[in-house]
């Protein structure tokens, strides 16, 4: 049995952007080994998916190393208190937002 890959229908659209932005995008695409079209499609996909949700939920990217630095001098019971409070409030809000 052959497996077929179904391609999503695409549309051709044109945009006006600054020359500096175009050059930056072309440079990034080259570094990443993808076409400019692929890079821009990835950016749009991120923006309309997770990026949009993260922005609405006011999330910021933060590495584990940053968190370790922030919490290393805090007493364990204080960290647990913060985690419990956030789980009870922010967690519920995020789930309700993401899953309507």
What is the strand content?
A: under 5%
Count of helical regions: 5
Q: Structural class of the helices, strands and pairings? A: mainly alpha
- Low-pLDDT runs of 5+ residues are none
Q: Fraction of residues in helices? A: 55-70%
Summed over residues and divided by their number, the pLDDT gives a mean of 86
Rg, Å, rounded: 21 Å
Rough outline: elongated
Distance between the termini: 39 Å
Number of strands: 0
Domains, number: 2
Q: What order do the helices and strands follow?
A: HHHHH
Largest β sheet strand count, sense and barrel closure: none
Helix-strand layout with pairing:
Elements: H1 19-32, H2 36-48, H3 50-56, H4 64-71, H5 76-99
Helix pairs in contact: 1-2, 2-3
Pick out its properties.
100 residues, mainly alpha, 2 domains
Brief summary:
This protein is mainly alpha-helical. It is 66% helix and 0% strand.
């Amino acid at each position: 049995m052959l497996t077929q890959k179904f391609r999503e229908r695409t549309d051709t659209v044109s945009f006006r952007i600054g020359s500096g932005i175009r050059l930056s995008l072309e440079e990034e695409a080259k570094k990443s080994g993808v076409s400019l079209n692929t890079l821009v499609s990835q950016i749009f996909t991120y923006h309309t998916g997770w990026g949009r949700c993260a922005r609405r939920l006011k999330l910021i990217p933060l590495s584990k190393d940053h968190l370790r630095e922030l919490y290393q001098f805090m007493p364990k019971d204080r960290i647990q208190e913060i985690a419990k409070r956030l789980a009870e409030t922010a967690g519920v809000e995020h789930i309700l937002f993401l899953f309507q």
